[in-house]
């Protein structure tokens, strides 16, 4: 057996990420220590929500960064092992691959959404910042969005818009209609506030729907947006 | 979401295996597994069970709910119940993975396959009739579907596009009514 790769080496990795988690916890005013397993769970939920949501959700890069640190730490530990054929090594590798998939797919989905409607998303991001809400995009994503918007403008200008008369030289700016979308959701907590839904028969009326714990609903997206951002419900 | 992502998530559900080797406890990021002792059953995440099985280090124990008897009971309940009945988490995903990757370990895997298929058909028929009913009216924008399984949600996803169209039409109607008055 190779002594350099024992559980305590891994315990170190786990505890160092525990510290990282704690730092984040402090930033978010509760000082509870988050275990790596909990971080992973949060990431899974964020990924699921992002994949199911009709629009881009506020970013969860704190969680992502902790996990990426964790992956790097584990990678280093694994690289130090001399006997690569150990069962333990392949198990850890397999787990890393799963987590890697989770984090990269999360980023991939978000970048795709940004590419889909880059200008609208940047306006929304700035609006949220003005209102003091948590930011929609991370710094890296914002940089990407700006670059993408610029490239898109240049391409459109060269290929199409340059040949059109000035009054119609506009870059398409599709309306975001996530407000009209519906979603499947599951309620995660007890005592989630009732949600007012638009009454289709009367534009001025509302229908109140109660959300019991664990129940699953097909429901318009707009009224439950706040619940989603506060982790009271999850999308399916 | 798509079916593959559902299966990925189902990979984290725990399942019982009988290891064929001895090994110490392993500290994974998601949880600690082991220690493994040959011949003594233990629970691990499904993805790990599949990995070990591929290397011939374990056999997978068929979950209780995937036995023909239990499945028949679910089928009866599904027939008697007008709504959907409650199933274990990730029922269809796990059944599908096990039948595909580990059918030698399953008891009566062909029978299990047919029963699961029957169950799926019955539930799908219910879901489809209720979705058609839901989409052919324009008064309600909300439906409750307790006990629906993740794969079924994926299968019912196209409904969302239809809901959006309906919402848009209704919004247009309201707009035109308001401009008339």
From TrEMBL, chain A:
It is found in: Nucleus. Keywords: DNA replication, Nucleus. GO terms for biological process: DNA-templated DNA replication; double-strand break repair via break-induced replication. InterPro entries: GINS_A, GINS_bundle-like_dom_sf, GINS_Sld5, SLD5_C, Sld5_GINS_A. GO terms for cellular component: GINS complex. Residues 183-236 form the DNA replication complex GINS protein SLD5 C-terminal domain. SUPFAM superfamilies: GINS helical bundle-like, PriA/YqbF domain. CDD domains: GINS_A_Sld5 (cd11711), GINS_B_Sld5 (cd21692). Residues 9-19 have a biased composition (Low complexity). Residues 83-158 form the GINS subunit domain. Residues 20-31 have a biased composition (Acidic residues). Transmembrane segments: none annotated. Residues 1-31 are annotated as: Disordered. Pfam families: Sld5 (PF05916), SLD5_C (PF16922). It comes from the Eukaryota. Belongs to the GINS4/SLD5 family. The GINS complex plays an essential role in the initiation of DNA replication. This is DNA replication complex GINS protein SLD5. It comes from Diploscapter pachys.
Automatic annotation (TrEMBL), chain B:
Residues 65-166 form the GINS subunit domain. GO terms for biological process: DNA replication; double-strand break repair via break-induced replication. GO terms for cellular component: GINS complex. Pfam families: PSF2_N, Sld5. The keyword Nucleus applies. This is DNA replication complex GINS protein PSF2. The lineage of its organism: Eukaryota, Metazoa, Ecdysozoa, Nematoda, Chromadorea. Belongs to the GINS2/PSF2 family. Component of the GINS complex. Keywords: DNA replication, Nucleus. It is found in: Nucleus. Gene3D superfamilies: 1.20.58.1020, 3.40.5.50. Residues 3-61 form the DNA replication complex GINS protein PSF2 N-terminal domain. Its main location: nucleus. InterPro entries: GINS_A, GINS_bundle-like_dom_sf, GINS_Psf2, PSF2_N.
């Amino acid at each position: 057996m190779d002594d350099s790769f024992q559980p305590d080496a891994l315990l170190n990795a786990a505890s160092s990420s525990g510290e990282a988690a704690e730092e984040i916890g402090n930033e978010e005013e509760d000082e509870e220590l988050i275990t790596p397993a909990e971080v992973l769970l949060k990431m899974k939920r964020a990924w699921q929500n992002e994949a199911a949501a009709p629009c881009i959700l506020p970013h969860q890069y704190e969680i992502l960064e902790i996990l990426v640190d964790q992956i790097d730490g584990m990678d280093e530990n694994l690289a130090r092992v001399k006997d690569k054929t150990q069962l333990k090594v392949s198990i850890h590798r397999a787990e890393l691959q799963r987590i890697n998939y989770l984090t990269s797919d999360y980023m991939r989905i978000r970048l795709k959404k940004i590419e889909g409607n880059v200008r609208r998303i940047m306006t929304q991001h700035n609006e949220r910042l003005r209102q003091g809400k948590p930011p929609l995009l991370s710094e890296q994503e914002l940089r990407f969005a700006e670059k993408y918007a610029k490239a898109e403008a240049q391409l459109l200008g060269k290929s199409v818009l340059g040949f059109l008369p000035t009054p119609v030289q506009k870059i398409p700016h599709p309306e975001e209609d996530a407000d009209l979308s519906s979603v499947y959701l599951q309620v995660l907590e007890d005592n989630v506030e009732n949600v007012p839904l638009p009454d289709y028969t009367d534009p001025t009326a509302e229908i109140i729907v109660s959300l019991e714990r664990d129940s699953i609903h097909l429901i318009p997206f707009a009224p439950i947006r706040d619940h989603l951002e506060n982790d009271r419900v999850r999308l399916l | 979401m798509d079916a593959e992502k559902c299966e990925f998530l189902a990979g984290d559900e725990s399942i019982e295996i009988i290891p064929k080797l001895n090994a110490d406890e392993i500290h994974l990021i998601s949880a600690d597994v082991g220690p493994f002792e040959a011949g003594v059953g233990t629970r691990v995440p499904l993805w790990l069970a599949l990995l070990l099985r591929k290397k011939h280090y374990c056999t997978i124990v068929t979950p209780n709910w995937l036995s023909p008897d239990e499945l028949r009971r679910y089928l009866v309940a599904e027939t008697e119940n007008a709504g959907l009945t409650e199933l274990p988490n990730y029922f269809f995903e796990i059944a599908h993975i096990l039948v595909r990757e580990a059918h030698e370990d399953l008891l009566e895997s062909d029978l299990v396959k047919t029963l699961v298929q029957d169950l799926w058909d019955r539930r799908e028929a219910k879901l489809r009739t209720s979705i058609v009913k839901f989409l052919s009216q324009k008064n309600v924008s909300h439906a409750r579907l307790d006990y629906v399984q993740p794969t079924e949600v994926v299968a019912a996803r196209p409904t969302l596009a239809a809901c959006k169209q309906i919402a848009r039409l209704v919004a247009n109607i309201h707009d035109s009514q308001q401009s008339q008055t």
